[in-house]
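Hey,
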Amino acid sequence: MRIKTQALKKRYAIIALIVIATVIAGGWIIYFAMGKPQYGNADSLTQQQLIDEYFNKALAFMVNKQYPQAVQEWNKLLVLNAPIPEAYANLGFSLFELEKYQAAKESFLQAIDINPYQVNAYYGLAICHEKLGDIHAATGAMRSYIHLAKKGDPFIRKARSALWEWESQLNNPEPPNNQP
């Protein structure tokens, strides 16, 4: 009886191995016969090329301090519905340089909404809040920036200095000027 049971177990094991080998071989045959699977289509490749082109142009305009042109390129990129937090953050900095603080703030918030770890967006948000007169919000955004910034970040000293200044303002508010 034991001999028949062992023989059946061997037979089942061999059948299982044959089935597994057949499935794997069939998968490989289909893969090589049909070619590597394509994800997306030619239109998405064209869209990716447009995204790269607009991003690089906008960045070049920013580097050359041509902020109105940079804003145009960032907006062209964002019209493609590309959820790129870096694009929103850079749009925010371009708008900030044009002194459009409310619009810049919205761009920084959009970047943070897409990626809560978009560190530079917190910095931009903080300086926008300062320009808009909301020191409490500026302090909170700058604290987030400092918390998320990597060691050696070149803006960390400036961020700590701004935070210290803002906290001093909050702790020691100037008395209102009552002179006629």
